[in-house]
């Protein structure tokens, strides 16, 4: 089950569970759409994978036991462990390779 992390790892923007602008990679690294498009060029700086929109977990349990009430989002804020120069280098080296070929 997705953790649904609460923030963009790059700019620390809040990304609540219903944020349509949240993007995740296959490791669930979480970024806002603006950082993915303008800074990262669809390259996760942690794993070099691509991004997809993060699914939105239902607020209301339309099936018994399945909702934000029963599976709340994560609360631990994350931040990148890499600096701007390192991020720029990995993005430049990877940007031209389609995610499915990385």
TrEMBL record:
Superkingdom field: Bacteria
Q: Which PROSITE patterns match?
A: ZF_RING_2
| Domain RING-type positions | 8-48
Q: Where is this region: Disordered?
A: 58-80
InterPro entries linked: DUF1272, Znf_RING
Its name, as the record gives it, is DUF1272 domain-containing protein
Organism of this sequence:
Sulfitobacter porphyrae
